[in-house]
Design brief:
eight-stranded mixed sheet; Calcium-transporting ATPase, cytoplasmic transduction domain A; Rossmann fold; alpha/beta; Calcium-transporting ATPase, transmembrane domain
Length: 880
């Protein structure tokens, strides 16, 4: 070792940090990525790292820090506002408007082009500003979980190693560090020494129970992952109990935690919002490309008009396209996101994600921290006969208390803490502690020696631990031992954790007690523990069910434990609704997609399993949300339509999520779903009403163009009418649909939208054509200029009144307007009606080519609108 260190001092390159993401750490540390795992010995690891049990010298550490940089995981920087603005231009809705603007400019319709350009700029500004605000809020959530670490360093090669605190960022490969209870593991490390060490690594694996770690070199089963190796600890985990000394094998981006950035890189698949937007955009593009040629050909063939009708054809195309769509979409999403942030602390980092979460019909989540509190509680205390026996719990508590006191442990582990919380303190203090043999991962039990009241000259051994380990030390017949094993197995299969308790009486003595005294015990019974449920989980799950959302549990825990938690929370879990990672590996993607719909619990999942399950659900036609907080959840967060993470999640998980919750609480998810459905429903309502009305107008215009010797409406009138209508429909961003329409996911289906706008567009066209008949009856010749102005005015008025009628009758479903005032949409419809009636006879009418209408027209128009309203109500009833 001295020789290798000397070589480093003479200019040899220090060892590079080693990435531990692709395969388990051992072979990579040695540079041996050969087939199959090959566990390196501790000596091999130290040689590869050019280090030793005494750690590095200060000079070596400085050289490595200068060469490879600090122990930091790179965090993605927030995008600048101009970049967000440019990215907003790629929105398909915005692209459609830009195309229309270019066409308008090409035919010198500068007014139309200016209006369209203004709307595009407003939409992009709103979206860029909203997303930048979300990025800033997310950045404010970052918390540093560890700032310093205890490291062994030497002043020079011959000096003794001394322990001192250094910033975590200054840690380098080859450093030797000390770990104790509550410490966050600051890098990927290989243990040199360990004493009763257990580690929480749920952020990496999803497994809630602490994992025992030790230093022994051992072979590894083929196919095992990095977390199956007890000699290794990883950045992102924390020390639950015990202590240890370890050598750093990888830092920063080279750790398994840091490499998660690379595994999730790449362009994500289109979300539900993206798919809906592209589908609707192609509908608009087809209509936009089809309309002007039809108008030109019809006028050229039947009326002999040429290119002079081109501005009118462009105006018709503009009239078909909802100009305010990008503005309204962004306004709905931004308003919902802002309200969520203010009232529930939910941050929407990507505005379309609000629509996605409203469209979600499946929510995938981990058990730990979401459904449970990541701590166990006592379920039952069973005697050898399987009946409740409180004495078993009392002896378990005596063991936990005096082991904690006499073994100088800083705090109880989670299981001992649950036991101690379930008994009275008087029961513990009735015994005097004599000695303790602490828990050892090898023998899997702990022993406390106490003096019991009334037992002079005798010591009582209270033993608690793994059921098999305790039973093997009890004085039992083979039949009794088999029966008790069956009892323990039945409890474990029901998803409970099991601890066995035994006692033994020994004559009082002064010499130390050892493991050899743990023989000939009297079996007392079993303690069963379950995960503590999150207080709000059951209520939130009931709300999710009412919202039409199916919950899938994807966890690294035991399948029985996960299924038990689901049953305790009221989630039905049939026997065939549990799938383990091993079974998933045997399925093809097609088979998995067919199976995921009826499966509720996916257990023993790795990160790749979670991503594959999420993708299978999407392939089966579901819109999927995924709630996760650990590095192991990153692939699934990106594979889902919308990734959700709590504020306390790992930094990389929070940065990779679309929605960030103030707490890991399902109640916040239900609020986000409600907000997303409000926004999605308002967007869908706007599209249905606008496109159906516009399509009806286009059909009527084409019909009128074939029947009339003049243009049915002047371009300025078309543009004015559309601006009034679109401005009124901006109020949909503030509308609140009836709760009944929010009980199912809001999905904007292009095919469903096309059927809707076709059916209701034809109704609108029939109303327009009926208006033509009314005008023909009212007027006595359509050849004079005055009659043209009256015709334009009559149709202008009818269009605005019919569109106001549509806004009110189709806005929110069958019961949308019952028992409520007009609301923003209602008042906008009233304003639209006033404009339609007042503008033609006003002084502003003549500049637009409008004139006053005869009184008889209004009476006949009332009849047409009444029939139209009746037809709308009947069609809406059949459509719903």
């Amino acid at each position: 070792m001295a020789e290798s260190t000397a070589a480093s001092d003479q200019g040899a390159d220090p060892p590079a940090p080693v990435a531990l993401s692709a395969v388990w750490a051992g072979p990579e540390v040695l540079g041996e990525p050969g087939p199959g795992p090959c566990a390196p010995t501790l000596l091999e690891v130290l040689r590869r790292l050019d280090s030793g049990p005494r750690g590095l010298t200060e000079a070596e550490a400085e050289a490595r820090l200068a060469r490879f940089g600090g122990n930091t995981v790179p965090a993605p920087g927030a995008a600048a506002w101009p970049r967000l603005f440019v990215r907003s231009l790629r929105d398909p809705f915005t692209a459609v408007l830009l195309c229309l603007g270019l066409v308008s400019a090409a035919v010198f319709a500068w007014g139309t082009a200016s209006v369209i350009l203004f709307l595009v700029v407003v939409s992009c500004v709103l979206r860029a500003t909203g997303e930048q605000r979300a990025d800033r809020s997310t950045a404010a959530l970052r918390r540093l979980v560890a700032t310093t670490v205890t490291v062994l360093r030497r002043a020079d090669e011959d000096a003794a190693a001394t322990a001192r605190e250094i910033p975590v960022d200054d840690l380098v490969v080859g450093d030797v560090i000390r770990l104790g209870p509550g410490d966050v593991v600051p890098a990927d490390v290989r243990l040199l020494r360990a004493s009763g060490l257990t580690v929480h690594q749920s952020a990496l694996t999803g497994e809630s129970a602490p994992v025992a770690k030790h230093t022994g070199d051992m072979s590894v089963d083929s196919g095992s992952g990095p977390f199956d190796h007890p000699q290794w600890c990883f950045l992102g985990s924390s020390i639950a109990s015990g202590s240890g000394t370890a050598v750093v094998t990888a830092t920063g981006a080279s750790t398994w935690f840091g490499a998660a950035h690379g595994r999730t890189a790449g362009r994500p698949e289109p979300s539900a919002f993206d798919r809906s937007v592209h589908g609707v955009s192609w509908i608009l593009i087809r209509f936009m490309l089809l309309t002007p040629p039809l108008v030109l050909m019809a006028n050229a063939a039947l009326r002999g008009r040429g290119l002079e009708t081109l501005p009118f054809a462009v105006a018709v195309a503009v009239g078909l396209t909802p100009e305010m769509l990008p503005v309204l979409v962004t306004s709905c999403l931004a308003r919902g996101a802002s309200l969520l942030a203010r009232t529930h602390g939910v941050i929407v980092r990507r505005l379309p994600a609000l629509y996605d979460i409203g469209a979600a019909d499946v929510l995938c989540l981990d058990k730990t921290g979401t459904l449970t509190q990541d701590r166990p509680v006592i379920d039952r205390s069973l005697g050898p006969d399987g009946r409740d026996d409180p004495e078993v719990l009392r002896w378990a508590a005596v063991n936990a208390w005096w082991t904690l006191q006499l073994a100088d442990l800083p705090e109880p582990d989670a299981l001992d803490e649950a036991i101690l919380n379930a008994v009275d303190e008087e029961d513990l203090l009735a015994h005097d502690g004599i000695a303790a043999v602490p828990f050892d991962p090898a023998r899997r039990l702990a022993t406390a020696v106490v003096r019991s009241p009334g037992r002079l000259g005798m010591h009582t051994l209270a033993v608690k631990g793994d059921a098999e380990a305790v039973l093997s030390r009890c004085a039992l017949s083979d039949r009794e031992r088999a029966d008790l094993r069956d009892l323990a197995t039945r409890q474990a299969e029901d998803g409970l954790r099991i601890l066995a308790v035994a006692t033994a009486e020994r004559p009082a003595r002064t010499r130390d007690y050892t493991q050899a005294d743990e023989r000939g015990l009297t079996f007392r019974g079993l303690i069963t523990l379950r995960d503590a449920l999150t207080p709000t989980a059951a209520e939130a799950l009931e709300v999710l069910t009412g919202q039409g959302v199916t919950v899938k549990v994807l966890t690294g825990d035991h399948p029985g434990t996960a299924a038990r938690t689901c049953r305790d929370l009221g989630i039905p879990v049939p026997e065939d609704a549990v799938l383990t990672a091993g079974a998933i590996d045997t399925l093809t993607d097609t088979e998995l997609a067919a199976l995921v719909a009826r499966t509720t619990v996916f257990a023993r999942c790795t990160p790749d399993h979670k991503a594959r399950i999420t993708q299978a659900l999407r392939s089966a036609g579901h819109t999927v949300g995924f709630l996760g907080d650990g590095v192991n959840d990153l692939p699934a967060l990106r594979a889902a339509d919308v990734g959700i993470a709590p504020q306390g999640a790992a930094d990389v998980a929070r940065e990779g999520a679309d929605v960030v919750l103030a707490d890991k609480d399902l109640t916040a998810v239900t609020h986000a779903i409600d907000a997303g459905r409000h926004a999605g429903r308002n967007i869908a309502t706007y599209l249905r009403i606008t496109l159906s009305s516009n399509l009806g107008n286009v059909i009527a215009m084409l019909s009128a163009g074939l029947l009339l010797p003049f243009l049915p409406m002047l371009p300025a009138q078309v543009l004015t009418q559309n601006l009034c209508f679109d401005a009124a429909q901006l109020t949909f961003a503030h509308d609140r649909p009836h709760p009944s329409v929010l009980r199912r996911p809001t999905v904007l289906s292009p095919r469903g939208l096309l059927r809707f706008i076709t059916g209701f567009g034809l109704l609108n066209a029939l109303a327009d054509i009926a208006t033509f008949a009314v005008l023909a009856v009212t007027l006595h010749g359509l050849g004079t200029r005055g009659d043209q102005a009256v015709f334009h005015s009559g149709w202008f008025t009818e269009n605005l009144l019919s569109q106001a009628l549509v806004m009110v009758l189709l806005r929110a479903g069958r019961r949308g307007a019952q028992g409520r005032g007009p609301g923003p949409v209602g008042w906008a419809a009233i304003a639209l009606s006033v404009i339609g009636l007042a503008l033609p006879p006003s002084p502003l009418g003549p500049p637009l080519g409008l004139a006053a209408l005869p009184t008889a027209y209004y009476l006949l128009l009332g009849v047409v609108l009444a029939l139209y309203a009746a037809a709308l109500l009947r069609a809406r009833t059949r459509h719903e």
